[in-house]
Amino acid sequence: MDEYVLKTRSLTKTYRNTVALDNVTITLKPGRIYGLIGHNGAGKTTFMRLIAGLTFPTSGEINLFGYTQAKHLQHARQRIGFMIEAPAINTSMSAKENVHLHRIIKGIPNEELEQELLALVGLQNTGKKKARNFSLGMKQRLGIALSLIGSPELLILDEPINGLDPVGIVDMRNLLQTLCAEKNITILLSSHNLSQLYQVATDYIIIDHGKIIETITLSELEEQCKQYVLLRTNQPELLVSTLEKELHTQNYLVMPDKSIRLFDFTDRMETLAALFQRKNILITNLSIEGNTLENYYIDLMERSRNV
Ligand SMILES: Nc1ncnc2c1ncn2[C@@H]1O[C@H](COP(=O)(O)OP(=O)(O)OP(=O)(O)O)[C@@H](O)[C@H]1O
């Protein structure tokens, strides 16, 4: 079934001399967490502002929950929540007062929602403390609580992790995963740092100079950045049969140059070295190889810029 929350077709936004977003065609499916990754100025905020209706496209189409026409789109936008640029909080008010104010503005009668949302984002015990005295992580979580007031099906968050300390990052990751898994909210969040969103997002959309240069799922990314033991020997057949017989693994590849990539035992180099010595296999290389996330991202950028 072709289920989707959002589809864009050739979405483009130009400012006077700048193409901020260039022919972006993507589909977001429900129940997933999408990481929009790109350097400063890549077009992430512009994309989010377009979807949220904060600015208008120069050309192209936005299809939100099946609606494309301007008047229907505006209605469909009631089903999204967003925190773009700074969280919309009043810093002279407490967390509870902020949530209350936004609930009233949105005309939502359910008062219990206030406490429920504060608990969800971990701010239920902040009492009268004013938001100006909150940590950045607390402010971000309050901003998310505000964007959840209309019970959105799609949540758009611009750099919610940026600037958080390690504890704040863990809290934010847990919150996002809870929202997706337990509240069934599809999430689109941006970051300029791929590793920041690693293990949080299920899908990664890499953007550069306004263009999507790659979309990749978490498992594909893990595959790309997989570590392996690189083995070289002049007895590759013997080595392979030893791996199978002694270590009971077939998780290896023999490369055209007869080197062997072993994807198991990456943390057991001593075991491997001892085994090959015992079996009198002369090893000329035994090292851990593989792309790091950082290298993967840098390579991707370089390749796209050289096209
Ligand atoms: N209102 C505007 N007027 C003119 N140019 C703009 C405007 N908004 C964005 N731009 C330009 O569009 C491009 C994309 O900007 P955008 O803010 O979407 O990038 P970004 O990926 O969100 O970057 P950052 O991480 O720095 O926020 C940049 O070159 C930016 O200078």
Automatic annotation (TrEMBL):
GO terms for molecular function: ATP binding; ATP hydrolysis activity. Keywords: ATP-binding, Nucleotide-binding, Transport. InterPro entries: AAA+_ATPase, ABC_transporter-like_ATP-bd, ABC_transporter-like_CS, P-loop_NTPase. SUPFAM superfamilies: P-loop containing nucleoside triphosphate hydrolases. The keyword ATP-binding applies. Residues 6-234 form the ABC transporter domain. PANTHER family: ABC TRANSPORTER, ATP-BINDING PROTEIN. Belongs to the ABC transporter superfamily. This is ABC-2 type transport system ATP-binding protein.
